[in-house]
Design a protein that fits this description.
Elements lengths: L7 H36 L3 H29 L1 H18 L6 H15 L2 H12 L5 H29 L1 H23 L4 H7 L4 H9 L2 H30 L5 H28 L2 H23 L4 H29 L5 H29 L5 H19 L9 H4 L2
Length: 407
């Protein structure tokens, strides 16, 4: 399908639009990690209940990954992208009116369902619109918005949550989503390429192909373990720094800009390098990164000073970023574009299930050990070690992707 790759100008427009869409989704996700400090007080929540709110989004998000990919492959990425943004905008706005734990959990779950179709659809667009040797770079540019949000949200939250409150902010975020949806409707090209895939393998055939690929199951485990570390850290970092290190929200915001800035630079650099290096080489680099990650997680949680803590956190961020950028490259470069959306949805299901399990599990551990985060630290270390083995089982060889053979 490389002969149908879009013109360079159109590709640039697409990646800009995907960048802003992914930025908005991450704005809401990261802000919730800070907003729960206030939500927990307003709703009188325990650590376990707070973790449940953080996890409910990921359950809906995980459940929608595979269906979202199938729908993108079947009906076109633009349609699913539009539906995803519209739905998540609605439920982001509705977060502002939640008055009990149960209502909040349901709304966040439905928000996850809404956003669940975004990444598979975006991956489908990248797979069908960009040359093979540009796909990791394109993905890294889109994902860079996540790093920018990780850097900006601490400051945004410190200002807005104190001034206008968490309810007003979610109304604003929902309104921004409506604007993004309009831009997608107007400027994302019609799904000419995607329509061809409707004539290709049907749902059962696509799933049958993917379920039989050892590559896909290795990716599912790799995604689960690395994202367990990622979302375990992101969801609990503000509360950990507040409870254990005694920092106020403003101080946390400024300090978290350091690893956030490092992540932005790392995403752009690593996306370029992954495209330049052979996937076999990248695989071993990824395994080494996951192994070293385990060591630096231990050092970070046991750091004697805040300065040392942030230094180790920055290194952890670098290692996490490489692995998280590497994993989708196996889908984008080794899975035929006809069902790249479904493949990305299947792989990312593992990552988002981790996002569901880990925050709640950490909250339970903190409650069980009287506010201690030591058990949570060891949980993340173990996930990192398991990730090493999962990455090493990935076969980087092309599996039916003729485009990859001519890379």
């Amino acid at each position: 399908m490389s002969e149908k790759i879009l013109e360079k100008k159109v590709r640039k427009t697409l990646i800009v639009l995907l960048f802003f869409g992914w930025a908005l989704g991450n704005l809401d996700r990261y802000l919730m990690n800070y907003a729960v400090v206030y939500i927990g007080k307003d709703l009188s929540l325990s650590a376990t209940e707070t973790g449940l709110i953080l996890s409910s989004f990921f359950l809906g998000y995980a459940l929608m990954q595979l269906p979202g990919g199938l729908l993108a492959d079947k009906f076109g990425a633009k349609r699913i992208l539009l539906i995803a943004v519209i739905l998540w905008s609605i439920f982001t706005g509705l977060t502002a009116v939640a008055w009990t734990l149960s209502v909040m959990v349901v709304i966040r779950f439905l928000f996850g369902i809404g956003e669940g179709g975004f990444q598979p659809s975006a991956s489908k667009i990248i797979s069908t619109s960009f040359p093979v040797n540009e796909r990791s770079k394109a993905m890294s540019i889109m994902l860079t918005s996540s790093g920018i949000m990780a850097m900006l949200v601490p400051i945004i939250s410190a200002v807005l949550l104190v001034t206008i409150g968490w309810r007003a902010f979610f109304v604003i975020a929902g309104s921004l989503g409506v604007m993004i949806a309009f831009l997608y409707w107007k400027y994302v090209p019609k799904d000419e390429i995607a329509k061809e895939s409707v004539k290709g393998p049907q749902v059962k055939a696509i799933l049958g192909i993917l379920f039989k690929k050892p590559l896909m199951w290795s990716l599912v485990v790799s995604y689960f373990t690395i994202y367990a570390v990622n979302w375990g850290l992101n969801s609990w970092m503000p509360k950990y720094l507040s409870d254990v290190r005694g920092l106020d929200l403003v101080s946390i915001g400024w300090l978290q800009m350091i690893p956030g800035a490092i992540q932005i630079i790392a995403m752009l650099v690593f996306g370029y390098l992954i495209d330049k290096l052979d996937l076999k080489v990248n695989k071993f680099i990824g395994a080494i990164c996951a192994l070293v990650l385990a060591g630096f997680l231990f050092l970070m949680f046991n750091a004697e000073s805040i300065a040392l803590f942030i230094t180790y956190q920055s290194i952890v961020t670098l290692l996490l970023t490489f692995v998280m950028l590497l994993l989708p490259s196996f889908v984008l470069k080794r899975i035929p574009s006809d069902y790249a959306g479904t493949a990305m949805g299947m792989a990312n299901t593992g990552g988002q299930l981790a996002g569901f399990v880990t925050p709640t599990l950490i909250g339970f551990m903190v409650d069980s050990f009287n506010g201690s985060y030591n058990a949570a630290m060891w949980l993340l270390v173990v996930f990192s070690v398991i990730c090493v083995g999962a990455i090493l089982t990935i076969s980087p060889k092309g599996q039916g992707n003729k485009e990859a053979e001519h890379e």
